[in-house]
Amino acid sequence: MNFRAQQFVREYLIDLNGAAAARRAGYSPHSAGRRAFELLERPDVKTALRRAMADRARRTDITADRVLEELARIAFADLSRLADWGPDGVRLKPANELREEDTAAVAFVSLGGRNKTQRIRMHNKISALVALARHMGLLRDGRKTVDRDLGPDAVEAMKARHEEQRALADRARAKLMRVVEDYARECEAKAKA
User: Which residues of the chain carry a pLDDT beneath 70?
Assistant: First the structure.
C-alpha cells in the first residue's frame, strides 16, 4: 500500500467519511468521492481499516457491545424512574436514588432559576430504537423486514393480517367518503333553499 493510501486509512478513521478522508490525504477534491470508493474497495485498504478499527476498539475499550448497551439505555429508559410530575410541575428524584442505566438517557437537567422550575430532557429515544432495530435486522433502509428466524407460517400470518388491516382501512375510507358526500349534499340543499 502506498503512502497516500496509508494516509487515507488514517484520515478515514477520523470521521468515516471517505470523500473527506481522500481530500485530507491529498487526492484531488474533484475526484475525492470516486477515489474514496475505489480505495474502500481495495482488499489491502479494507484489511488495514479493519485492523486499525480493531486496534482503536481495544485501546479505547469501545466495542459494539458497549455501543449497543448505551443505545439500549436510551431506548428503554423510563422517565418515571427519574422524575415525578403533576399539576404542580416536575420534581426530579434525588440522584442517589437513580439507576445508572436511567441516568445514561438524560441529556439535560435544569434545576431552575428564579421560579425554581425543574426540567429534564432525555436523549432521543426514537433514534436509539431505530438504531437498535437496524442492528437487530428489523429495519433496513427504513423498511421493515421479516426476521430470518420466522418460519413460512408466521410470514403468511403477517401477510394475512396486513391484508385485513388494508381491507379495514379501505372500508373506513369508503364510509368516511359517504359521510362527506352526504354532508356536501346537505350543504348544497341548504344553500339552494
Answer: 112-113, 115-117, 139-155
Q: SS3 for 110?
A: strand
Chain position carrying cell 479493519:
50
Torsions phi, psi for 61 (to 5 deg): 60, 30
The pTM of the full predicted model, rounded to 2 decimals, is 0.46
Q: Please tell me whether residues 51 and 68 are part of one structural domain.
A: no
Distance CA 146, CA 143 (A): 10
How far apart (Å, rounded) are the C-alpha atoms in residues 148 and 142?
17
- Do 7 and 78 fall within a single domain? no
Indicate if 140 and 169 belong to the same structural domain: no
Residue 27: per-residue pLDDT:
94
Which domain range does residue 192 map to?
150-193
The answer to whether the CB of 1 falls within 8 A of the CB of 25 is no
